[in-house]
Write a structure and sequence with these properties.
Shape: elongated
Low-confidence stretches: 375-387
Structural class: alpha/beta
CATH class of the largest domain: Alpha Beta
CATH superfamily of the largest domain: Glycerate kinase, domain 2
Mean pLDDT: 93
Length: 387
């Protein structure tokens, strides 16, 4: 019996990782009804991280927390025993900005801290924090305040939300935060190595994606520098140059400096959480994917991580995607035997977006024809009408 493992990320804006897996599995089963096909959705620490954990058997814990502009949003963390998986994108991310309006100077990470605090209050002692897709550049100050830190201006009042407010930090009191987080291990899923400040820092590199113009980038960078200096005076060490400090608008910095967090590659961490290694054992073929395969895919994205793990185990791996811009030699060097894209069978990109699940079934059938011996002519003829 052929055994196939589907471990795809989402097709952003079109299909969840679960939906991608289900569609590809349906296509494979049409070609090989006897095949054993397992679906293990994956993510790289950004949006879809909690969904991947839930698909792996974690329990959903819903709650309401502050969105990036302070409005309440319904979110959830995933829990297994004393381990909580928190997804920053789902509470403090760009996708949570009301009407999609960017707020580069005032967006806050407060809601992320609220979710962590809720998980700790519920008894979780290990927190996995995925920090991709953040909406703000507040240096993690909002997250820390939600965990009990007091960040006060010269008049003894709260500094307010967002990166611009960091210049007002006059005093820092971490007493309540330390009490809450005592004995709690924090692991951050992070795939960038930017420092907090400077030309490759959080504001300079990622600020424009969050709506900051050149003057605002300069203002945010200066504010992050002041914030780092204040924290260094409080803690006795300066972590602004640590690789990953600039992740998620400086949330990486706050997690490292104040929470004592460990930073790990997102897909590596997620593969462990979803039990990928045990699912991989005995597989004859691995299928992974995401909406677009390009050079960014090869730098810490989920498909590259899946391909590396499969290749190390000696299992062939192919990719499904909406569009592929990687040449064949780059695919092979990364461990992919092939890539199957929706635009190869449907040039209309809007139809690919709208009818992705149906088209993925066709790709699943093609993959079975190419990689799983035993697809009979009769079955192939029967499936030929899928469109």
């Amino acid at each position: 019996m052929a055994r196939v493992l589907i471990a795809s990320d989402k097709f952003k804006g079109s299909l969840t990782a679960v939906q991608v897996g289900a569609a590809v599995r349906a296509g494979i089963r049409r070609a090989r009804p006897d095949a054993s096909v397992s679906v293990v959705p994956v993510a790289d620490g950004g949006d879809g991280t909690v969904a991947a954990a839930l698909a792996a058997g974690f329990d959903a814990v819903p709650l309401t927390a502050s969105g990036p502009t302070g409005e309440p949003v319904l979110t959830a963390y995933a829990r297994r025993d004393d381990l909580a998986v928190v997804e920053m994108a789902d509470v403090s991310g760009l996708v949570r900005l009301p009407d999609g309006l960017l707020r580069p100077m005032t967006a806050t990470s407060r809601g992320t801290g609220e979710v962590i605090a809720a998980a700790v209050a519920a008894g979780c002692r290990r927190i996995v924090l995925g920090i991709g897709g953040s909406a703000g550049t507040d240096g993690g100050a909002g997250m820390l305040e939600a965990l009990g830190a007091r960040l006060l201006d010269a008049d003894g009042r709260s500094i307010g939300d967002g990166g611009a407010a960091l210049t007002r930090v006059h005093s820092i009191d971490l007493t309540a935060l330390r009490e809450l987080m005592d004995g709690v291990e924090v692991i951050v899923a992070c795939d960038v190595d930017n420092p907090l400040t400077g030309p490759t820092g959080a504001a300079a590199v990622y600020g424009p994606q969050k709506g900051a113009d050149p003057a605002q980038v300069a203002e945010l960078d200066a504010a992050l520098g002041q914030w780092a200096q204040r924290l260094a005076a409080e803690l006795g060490s300066d972590r602004r140059e640590t690789a990953g400090a600039g992740a998620a608008g400086g949330v990486g910095f706050a997690a490292l400096a104040v929470l004592g967090a460990t930073l790990r590659p997102g897909i590596e961490l997620m593969l462990e959480l979803v039990g990928f290694e045990s699912e991989l054992a005995g597989a004859d073929l691995v299928i992974t994917g995401e909406g677009k395969l390009d050079e960014q895919t090869l730098h810490g994205k989920a498909p590259a991580g899946v391909a590396a793990a499969a290749r190390a185990a000696g299992v062939p791996v192919v990719a499904v995607c909406g569009r592929n811009t990687l040449p064949e030699d780059r695919l092979r060097d990364t461990g992919f035997a092939a890539a199957y894209s929706l635009v190869e069978i449907e040039p209309d990109e809007q139809r690919c977006f709208n009818a992705g699940a149906m088209l993925l079934q066709q790709l699943g059938f093609r993959i079975a024809e190419d990689y799983l011996p035993g697809v009979t002519a009769a079955v192939a003829e029967q499936a030929g009408g899928v469109s």
